Amino acid sequence: MAAAATSKPLDFALVTLQSAVDQAKNTHAYISKHRTAKLSPQTIEAYNSCKTYWGDAASGLEFNLKTIKKDKGPNDTSDYDLKVTLDHGTICATALADARIQDPEIGNGLDNAWLAVGAVNTILGGVKPPKKLD
């Protein structure tokens, strides 16, 4: 991650947010490849829900990244938008817990994505949005 050596906070936030996008995509890919043939219907349902939730998280985080890049900084709801988007991963974790499933790969993916989003929110807190011309 050589790009992380930048001295510009916005660039660092964008690289960090890209890592959250990548983590969400990797977690979604892991779930998508999960073999459910010999699992209980409740387990299959939980994994299928997770597949949808992590797909939504990945596409949402990617949209957030594009928006922050386009705006050249955070907008009034960037921190909220990132948290709400990643809540999809948390809903997956709840679905797995309700089905009494422990999947460390998904848990690690969620932890890593939340860590990145938390860092991005902290960094963006110090980045001023660009001034709009009237």
UniProtKB/TrEMBL annotation:
UniProt superkingdom: Eukaryota
Domain annotation Pectinesterase inhibitor: ranges: 5-109
UniProt name for this protein: Pectinesterase inhibitor domain-containing protein
InterPro entries named among the record's database cross-references: Invertase/methylesterase_inhib, Pectinesterase_inhib_dom
Any GO MF annotation of the entry: enzyme inhibitor activity
Source organism (scientific name): Capsicum annuum (Capsicum pepper)
Alphabetized Pfam families for the sequence: PMEI (PF04043)
